[in-house]
Amino acid sequence: MPLHYEVHGPADGEAVLLSSGLGGSAAFWQPQLGALVEAGHRVIAYDQRGTGRSPAALNAGYAIADMARDVVQILDATATPRCHLVGHALGGLVGLQLALDEPARVASLVLVNAWSKPNAHSARCFDARLALLDACGPRAYVEAQPIFLYPAAWCAEHAQRVADEVDHAFAHFPGEANMRARIDALRAFDIDARLGAITAPTLVAAAMDDALVPWTCSQHLADGLKDVTLHFMPHGGHAHSVTEAGAFNRSLLDFLARVSAPGVPA
Description:
The protein is 47% helix and 15% strand. By secondary structure, the protein is α/β, with parallel strands linked by helices. It has a seven-stranded mixed sheet with strand order 1-3-2-4-5-6-7, with helices on both faces. α1 (30-38) packs across α11 and α5 crosses α7. The longest helix is centred in the middle third of the chain and has 17 residues, at 120-136.
């Protein structure tokens, strides 16, 4: 089944593909879209399989490798030989997998609050989220989501926006089976022993107050990758690309400008 994707910016711009986290929605990247297009990039955003405008029932055993193959499908559909892949959390795992499986398709990676292997704290968070889904259903599950995404002060200051996001997430909830399949996929992901095989230039970006994924996971990525730039922010939470979009965008654009090769299509 084809995936929903959208393309923005100049047709001759270097391609930047945006891969979202657990929510899977292209809309997550709205704070970055204008900045990337203004910088001359051709931007591809998509709704991941089984979410949003890419409805599908996910099979048992659905894995991050399957999600990476979905990215290849989108690159082929948009006649994109290779891209700079920007991934948030789960989307970063997709980027790591793609860089291992199809290195020629990856010009660079930007990994936002991502990881290379499971950790006990994030596992505890997902256990709690799944228990909430079991006991109370999808509404309670999405009501808790901002607690893991955003700092408390930001949530309080943007209370109406957070409420609107919760309503939207509930209205577009992908179903319990799909949500469990996606969580199972990210919990099973472990390419730690293969990090040294990834040669793509990589920006590792993390917020040190992320309540879901410890910043030490990003430090571990940076320690294991060959060509890496590490950018820590003191605050911003798991979705610091949203809560601190200005600072994140500056780091992102600086990195892309540095790794872009004039005259080489991406």
